[in-house]
Amino acid sequence: MSIQVDESYEILKCDICNKPLSVPPIIHSALLGYICGRCENKSKSDEKYGDSIAERQIIYENLAKYITFPCAYNVLGCSSMLKWESVLSHEDICEFKNIVCPLSHQNFQEQCPWIGDHNQLITHIKKDHKKFFSNPLQIKLTKEFESKILFWEITGHIVVIILDRKDTNKYFCCISADFNNKDCLKYQYQLEISNKQWGNPVIFQRDHLEPLYGNTFTRPDNSIEIDIESLKYLFKKSNEIIIKFTINQKVVSATSTISNAADKYFSKVENELNENLLHDLECPICVQYMTSPIFICEMGHNVCHDCHWKISRCPICRGNMQGGRNFTLEKLTEKINYPCVNREIGCSFVGLLANLKKHENNCLLAQRECFIGNCSWKGAHLDLKAHFEEIHNLIEPDTIHVHQLQKKVDQYFISFDNKLFLLNIRFDINKPFEYIVQCIGDDKIEYKHELQIIGSSLIDIKIKLCHLCQPLDYKVDRKTIRDFTGIAIPFTFLSQFLTHFNQIEFKIKIMKIDV
Length: 515
Hints:
The structure is a single chain. The protein has 515 residues and is α+β, with helices and mostly antiparallel strands. It has four domains: 3-84, 2-Layer Sandwich (Herpes Virus-1); 98-256, Apoptosis, Tumor Necrosis Factor Receptor Associated Protein 2, Chain A (Sandwich); 275-361, 2-Layer Sandwich (Herpes Virus-1), CATH 3.30.40; 370-512, Apoptosis, Tumor Necrosis Factor Receptor Associated Protein 2, Chain A. Helix content is 21%, strand content 31%. The protein has 14 helices and 33 strands. It is elongated, with a radius of gyration of 36 Å.
């Protein structure tokens, strides 16, 4: 299952940096609102935020693993949509983000203040740092063990080799390129340490390049570690130590295997209906899925709309339920694929919240109760039409029917467009004739009707009444059916249509409203 956050994602932004809530940990503060992982340290270090109670949003983070987010630099032109786990690494190397020159590194004697975008980096390096290009690709070490840098070019991309002395005992070697993550996996490299007197070089290998971004050179896990004491031993044998670098593109079969494995993994994630994810969306009180509106306590715990009005304290932390609505979680629930409530009895429907209620209102496996009179029938939705046809008045549309005015209240059912419609009639002497047509199971108006009342054979007149079909929930109570408010026709007017037997003849027609 995958959720894509597009131009409507405004509410899913950090309240400090205004970037997407796409980097963990996601924190909710009663004072600040929602804070992304980019700003976590800032919120902790700022004195004015110090007293604010913050709660990590575990539910949001679990949901976010199934979301594709826009890059934080989409306003500058980046169109990438990113999975939760790859957001930060992409944004660090995003071509629309400014990057500093690798020679800005504090351990180099020559420091460069240049800042620009990724597209201009190679031009800058070729122009201002040409002397750091080397062919062959090697570094000569001195007994001072200074930090070193080399540049190289592959297919129009810059490769940066840094040998960084971070402390007195260690060198850290990192080779990075301004490729994306996937292209970096297509290359491998090795470094070979040797001197003239020592016949067997020391070889280190790594199976991928690192993507070039701001903190590449400050992360030890991206580097090969070289012990300086061992190098000092080599200097006892010779006055010169050479480190040679070799960068090769992997054979096609190896990169294809990597690519295919990644595609299979993401395909599995895309098609997975994750039970743990749905479990996180359950209200802690009623254990039903939370949908908009969702309410949040002062510590960040969530409860559904129905349960919120029944409690004054959070069922988890006993805190006050005064946090208001969780608009961010509400926005996410609109993009989650939910299973039908009837899945345990065989329904396989899975869909977005906007489509779920409409489906459940007409799910063939939903259990129904007849709401007409004293009828006690119960059964599946798919049997409802047969029940109305057998026990109640299921009539054909656009066909003449006869209604007896002796009945104060009567109901007729019409089947149209795979839906059931209720024609409800109420009449009492000296009171208006009232009727209403409702579409059963709909939650919005999509149909209209035309009721035609036909005069007796002695007078050739008829009237047509056109109106909308109002929605009617299957769970409606019998009193609501009986006490409806509908379209009224004065009896003095209707009387001219009566036959000798206090009957009226009518036709009912249902039509889909043109959008």
